[in-house]
């Protein structure tokens, strides 16, 4: 029996998916349970909502206890891919995050405006990516929780200040401080390979302030000193290069968009399910609901590069970007 979910339910579901705090998620879940149509076709969904409400209550209580004992700086991604912005003081991380997302963040032409992590949602075509602005990293110090915050993200954007007189020192300081917490970019150094806790993250460099008169020379020097990175010249001030940066961030994550199609209804192009490249139909089902993944038999695909529209595919079918998929349980 079809669920026939209402616009009110879908609106509350969107709030839940965008929420980053347990309290916000809990409010959205309660609203979803309140407005969901009550019939046999939604029984499993109602049970799942009640389970998630219980779990989120516990999460909210745990977060409240942590706040009493001191600040917690973990950032919940809400199920969206998470990209963390790191860099030295006054490099322009907050300005870039604000430009890319449209969010209102504290932006000022002096260092240390950002004291704690701030999430913001960046749109990319019909997908969304969570950016996390962070406090600056100095060559001699950084916040003790930054290492765990960075390693929890899916990728990183290293923001370099092309107008800074200490460009190389500031950039090397960021790499050194994170390296001390065994967070590396590209690959783990040979001396650290096999060491517990050592991670290699996907990353690119946003070379900010490319509108500075000496920016081209500064970027050439930075590339020569650190040749292993992908560089994108940008300006948060003039917006130059921002669309290129947005595309490069999407490419860095290496994701595909599965377009869900409820049976008998048109596909939902505005709310794709994001999967790692190589993800399968069963992975898509798991994102929607664990029980659906267990019951899934097969799927039908449209806009597929390898199959005719409406063709049936197996559970292990590898999803292509923007492929429309109808799951059959």
Descriptive key words:
alpha/beta; Rossmann fold; Ubiquitin-like (UB roll); six-stranded mixed sheet; five-stranded mixed sheet; 36% helix; globular
Question: What is this structure, in a nutshell?
Answer:
With 329 residues, the protein is α/β, with parallel strands linked by helices.
CATH architecture tag of the largest domain: 3-Layer(aba) Sandwich
Number of strands: 13
Give the structural class: alpha/beta
Q: Roughly what percent helix?
A: 25-40%
**In order across it, which strands form the biggest sheet?**
2-3-1-4-7-8
Number of domains: 3
What is the CATH domain class of the largest domain?
A: Alpha Beta
Q: Would you identify the regions where 5 or more consecutive residues have pLDDT less than 50?
A: 66-71
CATH fold topology of the largest domain: Rossmann fold
CATH homologous superfamily classification of the largest domain: P-loop containing nucleotide triphosphate hydrolases
Strand content: 15-25%
List the helices and strands in order: HHHEHEEHEHEEEHEHEEHHEEE
- What is the radius of gyration computed over CA atoms, rounded to a whole number of angstroms? 22 Å
Q: What spatial form do the alpha-carbon principal axes imply?
A: globular
Q: With helices defined by DSSP (H or I, 4 residues minimum), what is the helix count? A: 10
